[in-house]
Design brief:
Aspartate Aminotransferase, domain 2, binds ligand F0G, 3-stranded antiparallel beta sheet, Aspartate Aminotransferase, domain 1, 16 helices, 2 domains, single chain
Length: 459
């Protein structure tokens, strides 16, 4: 077999959803009306949507067949029994609660563990995780290795928690004040980078030493398992599911947004080992989500997730998934586009600060690139820089984010290689006009999570 043979999609297409490429003139007008914020653009005006990999997966024929088998009974539905069995087998944990999405599981768990004076430590808290923790009055600290956000540093497990820093924080704040240690796999807010099994084991030891609760946020745990199998010594012979099981079982609780590696369009899970904690969570679940055997989900959603959680560990699927993300990253890298390396699982992150060095952080180079990709190619993506994380000091000056990134997140099983080729081609136009592009200024912003609704003007 030729070594350079194209890695074709391990599926064929049974149903199509038309997408439309508009003219650049049309898109300039759309973007202006949307205040230069792609969150405010209609999806019908987008050609390739790389805004998120969450809830955007294409379901398989098996999942759609499962949808027809959904049992919509209020209590004890067989669709629930199916989902509960799949999740218990995967996690090894006895208490499973279904929620409408990941953040609902976070709100329940951190609502119970959090509160004023409590401290949470993570490799990196995802925004909804941080928001749910801070909403209770608790504090959230990220413990990532010093150079993990540097686009050029090549480390196999750049998503790892810095265990030494975590230990210092436990000593500073006192073990009685620690709500939990949270390992996010893969580490979405830090370039979608994987976490090693070794790191999870060390975190287990740290939690045992101080008697602390260990939570895994594993919405991309299958993708993480791929990296462990191929990068971490000792795992080459294990299946992806065995690796995921081993990692999850190290923790005391497991939270998952099924909108990612559940290959479903909605859903979340909160899974635990401890009966007393599960009892408290069940009580909150019933108040805000629904009865314990459906949470926020329909029977058909639960079928789709149960089947998705099985399909996601298929070796052909995972290989295609990780390699197709890498394909985009590699080609952008070859063009000289600064991208975070090694490439993560669900997205490629472009360093817009380095691509547009003439645009300072307070003129938002990431947002400029997001706008340029939309105008030039109808591609939608999201800024992960000073628009998302910037704060103001008491003089109203912007305290910039550490990096000005743009995330190109790839929906699962949705786009073919030629769509990705198209995205790569659009970057030629970005390179050609990069000196000419200008920054933006904010004309409206809400008090929190401003990136969703802020409006801008081009300078
Ligand atoms: N944890 C992580 C690591 C996530 O990436 C997300 C969502 C959540 C929790 C929350 O799950 O959306 O089901 O409530 N990430 C999406 C993204 C929104 O675009 O990265 P949810």
């Amino acid at each position: 077999m030729s070594k350079t043979r194209t890695l074709a999609e391990p599926f064929k297409i049974k149903m199509v959803e038309p997408i439309r490429l508009t003219t650049e003139e049309y898109r300039i007008d759309v973007l202006k009306k949307a205040g230069y914020n792609p969150f405010l653009i209609r999806s019908d005006d987008v050609y390739i949507d790389l805004l998120t990999d969450s809830g955007t997966s294409a379901m398989s024929d098996h999942q759609w067949a499962g949808i027809m088998l959904g049992d919509e009974s209020y209590a004890g539905a067989h669709s629930w029994e199916h989902l509960e069995k799949v999740v218990k087998d995967l996690t090894g944990m006895p208490y499973v609660l279904p929620t409408h999405q990941g953040r609902a599981a976070e709100r329940i768990l951190y609502g119970i563990l959090g509160g004023k004076g409590k401290v949470f430590i993570s490799n990196t808290h995802f925004d909804t995780t941080r928001a749910n923790i801070e909403f209770t009055g608790a504090e959230a600290f990220d413990c990532l290795h010093e150079n993990a956000l540097d686009t050029a540093t090549l480390m196999p497990f750049k998503g790892n928690m810095d265990i030494q820093k975590a230990r210092e924080l436990i000593k500073i704040y006192g073990k009685q004040n620690i709500g939990a240690l949270i390992l996010t796999v893969t580490n979405n807010s830090a370039g979608g980078q994987p976490v090693s099994m070794q790191n999870a084991k060390e975190l287990r030891q740290l939690c045992d030493e101080f008697g602390l609760l260990f939570v895994i946020d594993g919405c991309r745990v299958a993708e993480n398992s791929y990296f462990i199998k191929h990068r971490e010594p000792g795992y080459g012979e294990n299946t992806y599911r065995e690796i995921a099981h081993e990692m999850i079982y190290l923790a005391d609780a497991f939270i998952m947004s099924a909108k990612k590696d559940g290959l479903a369009n909605i859903g979340g899970l909160l899974v635990m080992k401890d009966e007393a904690l599960a009892q408290k969570c069940t009580n909150l679940l019933i108040i805000s989500e629904g009865f314990a055997t459906y949470g926020g989900l329909t029977g058909r959603d639960m079928e789709a997730i149960a089947i998705g959680l099985d399909e996601v560990f298929d070796p052909d699927y995972l290989h295609y998934r990780i390699k197709s993300t890498e394909y985009l990253g590699r080609h952008l890298d070859e063009k000289g586009i600064p991208v975070i390396k090694p490439f993560g699982g669900h997205a490629i992150y472009v360093d817009a600060g380095k691509l547009y060095p003439h645009i300072p952080a307070d003129k938002y180079p990431g947002q400029a690139l997001v706008c340029d990709l939309y105008t030039k190619g109808g591609i939608r993506c999201v800024e992960v820089g000073s628009v998302m994380f910037g704060k103001y000091n008491e003089h109203g000056h912007l305290l910039a984010a550490k990096t000005e990134l743009v995330r190109l997140a790839i929906p699962r099983r949705v786009y073919t290689q030629s769509h990705i080729e198209y995205v790569i081609d659009v970057f030629d136009d970005i390179i050609e006009d990069k000196q000419k592009t200008t920054g933006l200024k904010i004309t409206y912003e809400p008090p929190f999570l401003r990136h969703f609704t802020a409006r801008f003007e081009r300078l």
